[in-house]
Amino acid sequence: MSMRDVMRRLVVLVAVLAVAAAPALAQAPSAEAPKAEGGEKTDVVKSILEQELEPPPGGYTYNPQGRRDPFVSLTKPVLAGDKGLRTRKPGMEGFLIQEVALKGIVRVDGSGTGPAARAGYIAIFLGTDGKSYFVNVGQRLFDGVITAIDATSVSFRQEVTDPLSPVKTRDLKKSLYVSEEARQ
């Protein structure tokens, strides 16, 4: 929407409000006001606003039909309440793979009880909320899942959401050491 369109809509809105408020300002405040007159005013205001919101003949309108809006930035975070988009859960399940930073990997020997009874590795991620998260293989993220954790890296299977892409998933790897990521 151009600045000219915004200004035009603002002028129309101010004019409509001025027309609607003029009779009320001209009358002295009284306890009784005719009901039919107020109903006609709201109908006039409503019809003017509906005409203003209709696209101009030959003008461009966008109907997403469930697709991503190409006029919205790709870097804009996905918000709850966006039409056609999944809502984000709190914690690791709400973060995109590229939003989390791998900060450490811990080896578990499996000599405990409960979750610590499994031998293997646990990764430590820093989320965009500033909190640290300890995750295992199989942990779900917003756009993927952790498939493997070794001594120096974590592997992900990312779900590709681009409808034009022939590939529906891809494998990603985050390393503890930046130099290893550059070699891949």
Layout: helices, strands, pairs:
Blueprint: H1 3-26, H2 35-53, E1 101-108, E2 120-126, E3 132-135, E4 140-141, E5 144-149, E6 153-159, E7 169-175, H3 178-183
Antiparallel strand pairs: 1-2, 2-3, 4-5, 5-6, 6-7
Helix pairs in contact: 1-2
State the main characteristics.
184 residues, alpha+beta, SH3 type barrels, 2 domains, 4-stranded antiparallel beta sheet, 3-stranded antiparallel beta sheet, 27% helix
Q: Summed up, what is this model?
A:
The chain is an alpha+beta fold and about 180 residues long.
Structure notes:
The protein has 184 residues and is of the alpha+beta class. The chain folds into two domains: 3-53; 91-183, SH3 type barrels (Roll), CATH 2.30.30. It has three helices and seven strands, in the order ααβββββββα. It has helices at 3-26, 35-53, 178-183, and strands spanning 101-108, 120-126, 132-135, 140-141, 144-149, 153-159, 169-175. The strands form two sheets. Strands 4-5-6-7 form a four-stranded antiparallel β-sheet. A three-stranded antiparallel β-sheet has the order 1-2-3, with no helix packed on it. Strand 4 and strand 5 form a beta hairpin. Helix 1 (3-26) packs antiparallel against helix 2. The longest helix is centred in the N-terminal third of the chain and has 24 residues, at 3-26.
Radius of gyration over alpha carbons?
28 Å
What proportion strand? 15-25%
Q: How many E-type strands?
A: 7
CATH architecture of the largest domain: Roll
Helix content, binned percent: 25-40%
CATH topology of the largest domain: SH3 type barrels
**Average pLDDT:** 75
Widest β-sheet, arrangement of strands: 4-5-6-7
Instruction: Choose one word for the global shape.
Output: elongated
The ordered H/E elements are HHEEEEEEEH
Give unreliable regions as ranges. 30-36
The number of helical elements comes to: 3
Sheet with the most strands, sense and barrel status: 4 strands, antiparallel
